[in-house]
Write the structure tokens for this entry.
Amino acid sequence: MKRVEILGAIEEAAALPGGTLKGNEILSSIANWDSLTGSEFRLIVLDRWQVSLSGAALVRCETIADIVGLLGSRVED
């Protein structure tokens, strides 16, 4: 998966227009980001890439970079 696709999945989960996120945002600064949005993001990731993210791990994320880090070596630039 590409980093831009991850950003798109976050935008989709948060009901943001495409291209809104640049990748350096703090999650608490993203409109609509909450636990429900995080759950929606987890479902999108599971559906598109068959990767299961831990809810507890996602809750500990503070930035988009932290989320990308959860996906580790699966992420291409």
Remarks:
- The CA atoms of residues 9 and 41 lie 6 Å apart.
- Residues 1-22+32-52 form one domain.
